[in-house]
Amino acid sequence: SCYPQVQYTINTLEISKLPGYENFNFGLGDKTFVEDGEFFGYDSNGFPIKEEIIISEKSENLDDPTKSVNKV
Question: Does the pTM exceed 0.85?
Fold first, then answer.
């Protein structure tokens, strides 16, 4: 029970360099939230369930930030 049962990979876009988004710079071990109705399901009101996640691995593509990947 000490090892994660599920690994979830998120393709991300690096927005922390844009004005107004400086606080969106995530590092290893950081906690944040993700909403994904297809993976986590929907609540009784039809909204995607919001789950807390921990960033466990980062792969940054400096040439094309749209290809950066975070594993949680």
Answer: no
